[in-house]
């Protein structure tokens, strides 16, 4: 089947999509956007987290066909058109929150969403919001630092992300 | 929260040794542009899939490929009969079949591989292969295997009087479950056939050259026709030291003449790599009335599973490090690696030192209790120091601040009591308690680890360094085959080049096999060995620059490079690099080795087997809901000596990450194997710590230089993984009064259900 959707602000189309293919496969293998990662493909690790119509989802749990006519933003879409980093990307880089980096794209989307909902989260808020994003390298300590420091920066204006939804459970 | 490290002197350049420059791959990683091995693609690419044994042990009576080959889109289906070269490979012993021929020896052993034009087609084709198995009874008990003489290696260590007696004796039997590395980036790679009949393999690995050697041997190709390029590595922790899909993808690419990509799913990943050895350990400690150790007797059985992998080296670590960082005059130690039909076990961060630390530290607490001593005090009384003698007879000649590390974690302020936010109780967001039945406990542990490869192994690294003018600016190129697995080795190589050559712009070339071996990214060795090689090559380049200058300006005594200039010892500029180099780069390649080590005597275990010893101590504070058996780790304090923090931010990253993996082993991580079959191969059922499970961590870093190591550094990656497990368990014991002799600690151990 053919799937058309907006991805990172651009209208995109993919042909020959199997009904069983996930949104993650669609992005990575059919649209050439491997930013969202494939650490489990079972909804357990959050490495594939992307926005779907402004809501963060595990792209591995969404069928590719469900993206038809909808808006997807992955980590690539958080970077400004001039290549400028979003504050969350910048904070992860500076804080040393990136080691192997496999968890990073999903975490950056999850943190971007958290800060859009809660501008100054407590540590307990941060931990609760990121409980679905596994990282095997960092022990999360520098990730906590990165979120705290991103929250202290003004929100980036550059991102291609659509206006985020109001608060509420994921 | 962390303490600042001791101030380090900085050179004229920024981003040199002692700084924490931003990782050169960091921007790519935060923007999603970094190419991990699972992100690669090529025109005309096919997808590979693997058929694996459902049995722990079975005879293969026949394989029927007809239905698989009939599926449209399938390009090749290969079995053992299609392997052109050596049928088996292995790190230490070539005993693991590329594809099983007559018999399978563990669940998940590869039997056939498929290439097809869609990954789902490849998987479906693999499922259509009909294998006629005759199931055989598997050997799944390591002690039974040992009794039957099925062992990979036995390492005895004998020191002092084997019949020594003591006033106070404690003994215990301790068990460690099978831990998995659970890196996030699955096993994956892309094999491309080349016009010379060879293959280019883009791969996530820990050691390109050892893969190259094994792949070439199995393909029946000369080594120079198998070229490996490091693709982005999504974590390793030991699990990428053995081959996984390397040979399979190359076989399929050579057969089809097309690029072939293989990516394991998470379930397959649990079958696609070795695990940490489960251990059964019997310890007896004897001490005098003051708590000074008189003897340690230990019998340690590690389950190596079906194939050797690195089990022989893991057994040696367990044996040589198995009494911990303590002075023990009399030791009777026997460590064994058993061969069973359980999943193969091999390298994982801590490598034999993790299991034994749980054993000897549990014993030290037992001894403290028997004597009415404080747990830190009993450790201090027995702490080794510089000049202490290991059970192997090796003298510890570098800094060994065991007592000081314990004092550092002991003297950290205690964490605050729970604030009342229900998310801070055990059970957390599940809201299972408001503080009733919750008890707090504190526990301590310290561990020891060898750094680099041991027992006489020729352990070296190679670096090629080139200094040239590019666009009017001096630029250094550093090229090694060392695997960046997330730890920050690319950053560190650039830092060393900046410091040695006084040049800000450094490019670290992608790692591949066109330069000599760097050895493995394991054993906490790359900063030491590849760091040493990069420094040596940089110094050779500097000497080359000075020789050129010398030809014009006389003797080069005391000259060095700084800020793009040649300067005197006191910093006075003598010449500009632009003028010395002109259009003619200076390039040097150097192999670098640490001081030699020696084999262990096979009867007594005596010998100077290790290069360097590293130490970390932990204090864990836990809250336990004793009714529900839920544990929340409140805080972990770590103290570690790193010799020299080449990159302080990366040092903390290693300490945090390693500590968290040890916490995982204490509380939740176990691959459960029943009758040789893995029961929980998914992140739904194999739990690794989430951000809710890992507490705030404080870290004290000591920098006591080791005179033998480059910059005085000490390997950092493994020590923090070793002692966090026993520290957490000690804290739970302190809270509950339970004996707890097995990790991971399950809720039912705490509620009395078991
Ligand atoms: S890959 Fe989607 S949650 Fe893990
Ligand atoms: S940085 Fe490796 S998994 Fe998070």
From TrEMBL, chain A:
Keywords: 2Fe-2S, Iron, Iron-sulfur, Metal-binding, Oxidoreductase. Residues 1-78 form the 2Fe-2S ferredoxin-type domain. The keyword Iron-sulfur applies. Gene3D superfamilies: 3.10.20.30, [2Fe-2S]-binding domain. GO terms for molecular function: 2 iron, 2 sulfur cluster binding; metal ion binding; oxidoreductase activity. PANTHER family: OXIDOREDUCTASE WITH IRON-SULFUR SUBUNIT, XANTHINE DEHYDROGENASE IRON-SULFUR-BINDING SUBUNIT XDHC-RELATED. This is (2Fe-2S)-binding protein. It comes from Micromonospora wenchangensis.
């Amino acid at each position: 089947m053919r799937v058309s959707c907006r991805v990172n602000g651009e209208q995109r189309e993919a042909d020959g999509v199997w009904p069983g293919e996930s949104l993650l496969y669609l992005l990575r293998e059919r649209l050439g956007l491997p930013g969202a990662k494939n650490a489990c493909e079972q909804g357990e690790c959050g490495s594939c987290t992307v926005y779907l119509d402004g809501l963060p989802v595990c792209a591995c749990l969404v069928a590719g066909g469900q993206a038809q006519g909808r808006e997807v933003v992955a980590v690539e879409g958080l970077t400004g058109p001039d290549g400028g980093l979003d504050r969350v990307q910048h904070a992860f880089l500076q804080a040393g929150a990136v080691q192997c980096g496999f968890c990073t794209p999903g975490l950056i989307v999850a943190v971007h969403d958290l800060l859009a909902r809660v501008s100054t989260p407590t540590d307990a808020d941060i931990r609760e919001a990121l409980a679905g994003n596994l990282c095997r390298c960092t022990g999360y300590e520098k990730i906590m630092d990165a979120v705290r420091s991103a929250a202290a920066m003004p929100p980036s204006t550059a991102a291609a992300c659509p206006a985020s939804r109001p608060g509420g459970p994921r | 929260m962390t303490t600042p490290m001791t101030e380090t002197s900085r050179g004229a350049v920024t981003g040199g040794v002692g700084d924490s420059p931003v990782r050169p791959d960091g921007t790519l990683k935060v923007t999603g542009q970094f190419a991990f091995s699972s992100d690669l693609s090529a025109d005309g690419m096919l997808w590979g899939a693997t058929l694996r044994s459902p049995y722990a042990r079975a005879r293969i009576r026949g394989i029927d490929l007809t239905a698989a080959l009939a599926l449209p889109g399938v390009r090749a289906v290969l079995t053992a009969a299609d392997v052109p070269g050596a049928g088996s490979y292995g790190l230490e012993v070539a005993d693991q079949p590329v594809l099983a021929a007559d018999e399978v020896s563990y669940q998940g052993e590869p039997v056939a591989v498929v290439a097809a034009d869609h990954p789902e087609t490849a998987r479906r084709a693999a499922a259509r292969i009909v294998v006629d198995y005759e199931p055989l009874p598997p050997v799944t008990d390591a002690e039974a295997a040992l009794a039957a003489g099925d062992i990979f290696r036995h390492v005895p260590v004998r020191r002092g009087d084997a019949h020594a007696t003591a006033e106070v004796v404690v003994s215990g039997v301790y068990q460690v479950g099978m831990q998995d590395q659970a890196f996030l980036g699955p096993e994956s790679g892309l094999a491309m056939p080349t016009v010379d009949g060879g293959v280019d393999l883009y791969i996530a690995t820990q050691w390109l050259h050892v893969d190259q050697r094994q792949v070439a041997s199995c393909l029946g190709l000369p080594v120079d026709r198998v070229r490996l390029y490091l693709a982005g590595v999504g974590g390793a922790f030991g699990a990428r030291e053995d081959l996984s899909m390397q040979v399979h993808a190359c076989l399929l690419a050579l057969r089809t003449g097309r690029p072939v990509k293989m990516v394991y799913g998470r379930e397959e990943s649990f079958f696609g790599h070795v695990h940490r050895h489960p251990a059964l350990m019997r310890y007896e400690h004897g001490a005098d009335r003051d708590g000074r150790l008189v003897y340690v007797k230990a019998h340690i059985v590690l389950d190596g599973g079906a194939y050797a992998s690195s089990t022989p080296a893991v057994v040696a670590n367990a044996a040589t490090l198995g009494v911990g960082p303590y002075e023990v005059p009399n030791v009777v130690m026997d460590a064994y690696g058993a061969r069973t039909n359980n999943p193969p076990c091999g390298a994982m961060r801590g490598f034999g030192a993790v299991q034994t630390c749980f054993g000897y530290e549990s014993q030290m607490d037992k001894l403290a209790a028997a004597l009415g001593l404080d747990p830190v005090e009993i450790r201090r009384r027995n702490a080794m120091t510089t000049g202490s003698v290991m059970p192997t007879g090796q003298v510890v000649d570098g800094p060994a601040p065991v007592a000081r590390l314990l004092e550092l974690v002991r003297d950290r302020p205690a964490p605050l009591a729970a604030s009342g936010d229900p998310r801070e109780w055990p059970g957390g967001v599940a809201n299972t308690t408001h503080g009733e039945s919750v008890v707090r406990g504190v526990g301590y542990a310290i561990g020891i680890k060898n750094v680099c490869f041991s027992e006489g192994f020729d352990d070296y690294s190679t670096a090629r360094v080139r200094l040239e003018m590019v666009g009017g600016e001096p630029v250094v190129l550093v090229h090694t085959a060392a695997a960046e697995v997330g730890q920050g080795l690319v950053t560190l190589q650039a830092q060393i080049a900046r410091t040695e050559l006084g040049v800000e712009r450094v490019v670290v070339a992608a790692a591949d096999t066109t330069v000599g071996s760097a050895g493995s990214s394991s054993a906490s060795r790359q900063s030491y060995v590849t760091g040493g090689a990069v420094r040596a090559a940089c110094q050779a380049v500097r000497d080359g620059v000075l020789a050129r200058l010398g030809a014009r300006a006389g003797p080069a005594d005391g000259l060095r490079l700084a800020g793009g200039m040649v300067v005197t010892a006191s910093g006075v500029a003598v010449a500009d690099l632009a003028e010395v180099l002109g259009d003619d780069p200076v390039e040097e390649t150097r192999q670098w080795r640490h001081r030699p080590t020696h084999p262990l005597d096979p009867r007594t275990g005596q010998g100077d087997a290790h290069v360097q010893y590293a130490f970390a101590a932990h204090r864990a504070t836990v809250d336990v809901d004793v009714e529900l058996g839920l544990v929340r780790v409140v805080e972990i304090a770590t103290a570690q000596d790193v010799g020299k923090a080449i990159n302080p931010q990366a040092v903390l990253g290693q300490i945090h990450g390693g500590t968290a993996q040890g916490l995982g082993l204490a509380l939740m991580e176990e691959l459960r194997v029943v009758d040789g079959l893995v029961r929980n191969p998914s992140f739904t059922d194999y739990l690794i710590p989430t951000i809710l499970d890992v507490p705030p961590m404080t870290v004290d870093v000591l920098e006591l230089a080791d005179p033998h190591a480059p910059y005085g550094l000490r390997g950092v990656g493994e020590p923090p993984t070793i002692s966090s497990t026993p520290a957490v368990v000690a804290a739970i014991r302190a809270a509950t009064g339970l004996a707890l002799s097995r990790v991971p600690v399950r809720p039912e151990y705490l509620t009395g259900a078991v």
